[in-house]
From TrEMBL:
Residues 524-537 have a biased composition (Acidic residues). GO terms for biological process: nitrogen fixation; phosphorelay signal transduction system. It comes from Caenispirillum bisanense. This is Nif-specific regulatory protein. Residues 500-517 have a biased composition (Low complexity). GO terms for molecular function: ATP binding; DNA-binding transcription factor activity; sequence-specific DNA binding.
């Protein structure tokens, strides 16, 4: 190589510029160091160059880049550069020049693998790589030893030292980035741990009282209760019979600021109108036969606390007007009295009836409906929270064992049958089924064969088998599962909870929109619905009602879309829904 002063200096500046661009182009340090060596090979005509780095102070140095060798080859140990030379340069922190490495025993094993041919004279120039004054690595090159410049390596050493300084600055930046990344990762781990703890704490808080429910549907209910409980708003609990409305009403009370005040409950369907009025408002002495003394009503007893009116949809029209005044004005008179009594009561109501349909038919006052339907909370039926069934079964079985001094357990096959049941009676029906099965089980473990449904003794399935679409049983039970063809049964009936079959997505007693009769309906609408019956043979055995429900499910309970699927008009769909007693689900 010729060391022309002018050309050499210009080439050095260009090389330094290109090296600085390479070092700043990537966060992959080893890759950029390989690229630096490739550039140096074209500038200094070197045979091979290496860069070795010491990751920790006092730790071993490792060759991280070598021209002519891949990164995988380095990992496989194919670079035989003498480690004692690396340690010497790094340890001393000063450059080292070996004029003719062929005569140096330290390079005896390395040079034959460094593209050195027999008879060649090879020079080795090595400089330390420093970070903040500390020697952390070594940059070394080997090139042909030219006799006329054998002792003129000063310019090469100066140039390599500048390159080593750039590499050192890059390593310092990488160390800083790595340190910051470690801090960020540690902070991320802390935040994730704290978030998990907060989520777990929130989930524990959502597990209200003794209400068993870990499914997504119940957690939504718990979240709503947590939000509404601290307020004074009237709550209307909607849901089928047996879904736990009274437990939720108690949770609303005990999570409210009124928790230290009375929680009074009244079942409006259990009393006739005359007794219900006396029960709620109280009576004066002599107000009627048998009224031998003054008596406070439930409103007075609940003053400052919470009054739970269950089955609010069953009260008569005349009593609805009396109740409306109390809710609006907060005052009433006892039966047989004329003294106005004012109370401060938080009202929680519950019903399994479709109040919207009752309002449309005139069976329930619209003004009272708006008064109690301030914050509606819909409780999911058990078929929509099947993940909770195992915990519920174990809870009821544990309570049965405690009450009856037994130690009965349940097998996995029996639990699977429980989870496949329809349970129109919801949690109450499940509890009765568990108690019945536990009572009749002779062994210590309940197996699937012990369940009544496995022996065609499920009374619930018998009840629903005799039900027609127009039947409306008292008590607000869920809709019956559609009667399938025999081969569509999965594992038989569910233990006291209806046939064990795929539960259809039929909206039940969780009213969203009342399907009212269209006053403009044509007389031939019913005849136009014959298309549902005409295709019955080619519809996979589905009844017209099942076909209608399937179309509504597919259309997302949008009547216009379902009409297009069935080739009907929206008006005909509305009439068909009413005819088959299908309540429209709100999504």
């Amino acid at each position: 190589m010729k060391h022309d002063a002018t050309g050499g200096d210009a080439l050095s500046l260009i090389s330094i510029y290109e090296i600085s661009k390479i070092l700043g182009s990537s966060l992959d340090l080893e890759k950029t160091l390989h690229d630096v060596l490739n550039l140096l090979s074209s500038y200094l005509q070197m045979r091979r160059g290496i860069i070795a780095l010491r990751q920790e102070k006092g730790g071993p140095a490792r060759v991280v880049a070598a021209s002519g060798l891949s990164r995988q080859s380095l990992k496989n140990g194919l670079c035989l550069f003498p480690p004692q030379v690396i340690d010497r340069v790094i340890g001393s922190g000063v450059p080292m020049v070996v004029g003719n490495a062929v005569t140096d025993s330290a390079f005896e094993e390395y040079l034959p693998h460094a593209d050195a041919e027999a008879g060649d004279a090879v020079s080795v120039i090595a400089v330390p790589i420093k970070i903040n004054g500390e020697s952390r690595g070594m940059l070394s090159i080997e090139r042909e030893w030219e006799t006329e410049v054998r002792f003129k390596f000063e310019s090469d050493v100066r140039f390599l030292t500048m390159v080593a300084n750039l590499v050192g600055q890059t390593m310092r930046l990488h160390d800083t980035v790595a340190s910051d990344r470690e801090l960020l990762m540690a902070e991320k781990v802390k935040l994730e741990k704290r978030l998990r703890e907060e989520v777990d704490a929130a989930q524990e808080e959502l597990a209200i009282g003794n209400i068993i429910g870990d499914s997504a549907a119940m957690r939504r209910v718990f979240a709503e209760i947590q939000q509404v409980a601290p307020t004074r708003s009237t709550v209307l609990l909607r849901g089928e019979s047996g879904t736990g409305k009274e437990l939720i009403a108690r949770a609303v009370h005990y999570l409210s600021p009124r928790s230290d005040k009375p929680f009074i409950k009244v079942n409006c369907a259990a009393l006739p109108e005359t007794l219900l009025e006396s029960e709620l408002f109280g009576h004066e002495k002599g107000a009627f036969t048998g009224a031998t003394q003054e008596r406070k009503g439930r409103f007075e007893q609940a003053s400052g606390g919470t009054l739970f009116l269950d089955e609010i949809g069953e009260i008569s029209a005349s009593f609805q007007a009396k109740l409306l005044r109390v809710l609006q004005e907060g005052e009433f008179e006892r039966v047989g009295g004329n003294k106005t009594i004012r109370v401060d009561v938080r009202l929680v109501c519950a019903t399994n009836k479709n109040l919207e349909e009752a309002v449309a038919k005139g069976d329930f006052r619209a003004d009272l409906y708006y008064r109690i339907n301030v914050v509606p909370v819909f409780l999911p039926p058990l078929r929509d929270r099947k993940d909770d069934i195992p915990n519920l079964v174990r809870h009821f079985l544990t309570r049965f064992n405690q009450e009856n001094d037994r130690s009965i357990d349940i097998a996995a096959d029996a639990m699977q049958v429980f989870q496949s049941c329809y349970f129109p009676g919801n949690v109450r029906e499940l509890e009765n089924c568990v108690n019945r099965v536990a009572t009749m089980t002779r062994g210590e473990v309940i197996h699937h064969i012990d369940l009544p449904c496995q022996r065609d003794l499920c009374l619930s399935s018998v009840l629903w088998r005799h039900r027609t679409p127009d039947d409306r049983p008292v008590g607000g039970l869920g809709a019956a599962p559609p009667e399938p063809r025999r081969e569509r049964y999965a594992v038989g009936g569910g233990g006291g909870g209806g046939a064990a079959m795929p539960a259809p997505s039929v909206p039940v007693s969780m009213p969203a929109r009342a399907v009212a009769a269209d006053p403009g309906r044509h007389e031939d609408d019913e005849e136009d619905l014959s298309i549902l019956d005409d295709d019955y043979e080619g519809s996979g055995g589905l009844t017209p009602r099942e076909r209608l429900v399937a179309a509504m499910e597919k259309a997302g309970w949008v009547q216009a879309k379902a009409a297009r699927l069935l080739g009907l008009t929206p008006r005909q769909i509305g009439y068909a829904l009413k005819k088959h007693n299908i309540e429209v689900k709100r999504l």
